[in-house]
Write a structure and sequence with these properties.
This protein is an alpha/beta fold. The chain has helices at residues 13-24, 36-46, 58-72, 96-124, 144-164, 182-189, 195-200, 210-221, 239-245; strands spanning 4-8, 28-33, 49-52, 77-80, 127-132, 169-176, 232-235. Strand 2, helix 2 and strand 3 (49-52) form a beta-alpha-beta unit.
Length: 252
C-alpha cells in the first residue's frame, strides 16, 4: 500500500516542489492550500488530491484532518509548508494586527496541524513531520513578526520530537535560505530584494531552488533519516556560514 503525505501550502513554492517530490517517490499526496485554482491544478498535474484549507482556522484544520484520515486511514508524513512572508518594518512601526495574522498562520497554524495529525501518528506508532523554519530561525531580520515566528518553529520542533519520539514519530524542520519562489521573484521584480547581494553572501553563489528544499524534506521523511529527530536543517547555499565568516576583518 502506498504511503500518504499531507503537504500544507502545497500549491506553490516549496510546498509545490515538495508535493512533486513525494509524488515522484510513489506517495499518495494530499495538498492543502488556500489557493483553490492553483491547488487543484497542481494536484491534477501530479495525481494528488487537493482540499482547501486555511491553517489559521482551527475548526477547518480539524475537519480537514478528519476528512483525510477517513479517506486514507493513516498518514505517514506531514509537511507544514503553509505560511506567509513579511516585508521589512521596524518593530516600533509594526501594526500588532500584522503580527497576530502572521503568528496565526506560521506558528499557531503549524502547531494545530501538528497536534491533530500528531495524535493519529502517535496512536499508530509511526510517522514523520517536517516543519518550515527559515534563516531567521538563526539570524535576526527586519521582518520581526516573521522572524520571531520562525524562531518559535525550532523550539516547537524540538518539543514535539521529545514528546512524539517514544511513540515512533519523528519531528524535524528545515530552515531554507533565500529560495527563488514566485513570492521571492515578485519581491525582486518590485525592488524589495537585490538578487546580486543575496548571491554574493552565499558560499555557493546561488539561490536555493524550491526543489532543493523538497529533496531535503523527502530525506527527513525517509527511512534514511530514521535516527534523525528534533533537528532544524539549514538549506541555504552556505549563507549562514559565509555571513559569519566574512564578518571578521581577518578574513584572508
Amino acid at each position: 500500500m502506498s504511503k500518504v503525505v499531507v503537504v500544507t501550502g502545497g500549491a506553490s513554492g516549496i510546498g509545490e516542489a515538495t508535493a512533486q517530490r513525494f509524488a515522484a517517490g510513489g506517495f499518495v499526496v494530499e495538498i492543502a492550500d488556500r489557493d483553490e485554482a492553483r491547488g487543484a491544478r497542481i494536484a491534477g498535474e501530479i495525481g494528488a488530491t487537493y482540499r482547501g484549507l486555511d491553517v489559521a482556522d482551527e475548526a477547518a484544520i480539524a475537519a480537514y484532518a478528519a476528512d483525510v484520515l477517513a479517506r486514507r486511514v493513516a498518514v505517514d508524513a506531514v509537511v507544514n509548508s503553509a505560511g506567509v512572508l513579511q516585508n521589512a518594518i521596524r518593530v516600533t512601526d509594526m501594526d500588532i494586527a500584522e503580527y497576530d495574522r502572521i503568528h496565526a498562520i506560521n506558528v499557531r497554524g503549524t502547531l494545530l496541524v501538528n497536534q491533530v495529525f500528531g495524535r493519529a501518528m502517535t496512536t499508530r506508532g509511526r510517522g514523520a513531520i517536517v516543519n518550515m523554519g527559515s534563516l531567521t530561525t538563526y539570524r535576526p531580520s527586519g521582518q520581526p513578526a516573521y522572524a520571531m515566528g520562525k524562531a518559535s518553529i525550532k523550539m516547537m520542533t524540538e518539543i514535539l520530537a521529545a514528546e512524539f519520539g517514544p511513540h515512533g514519530v519523528r519531528v524535524n524542520a528545515v530552515a531554507p535560505g533565500y529560495v527563488l519562489t514566485p513570492a521571492m521573484q515578485a519581491r525582486i521584480d518590485s525592488g524589495q530584494r537585490d538578487p546580486k547581494l543575496i548571491i554574493e553572501k552565499a558560499a555557493l553563489r546561488r539561490f536555493v531552488q524550491p526543489a532543493d528544499v523538497g529533496e531535503a524534506i523527502w530525506f527527513l521523511c525517509s527511512d534514511a533519516a530514521s535516527a534523525i529527530t528534533g533537528v532544524t536543517l539549514p538549506i541555504d547555499a552556505g549563507w549562514l556560514a559565509t555571513s559569519a565568516y566574512t564578518a571578521y576583518a581577518a578574513v584572508p
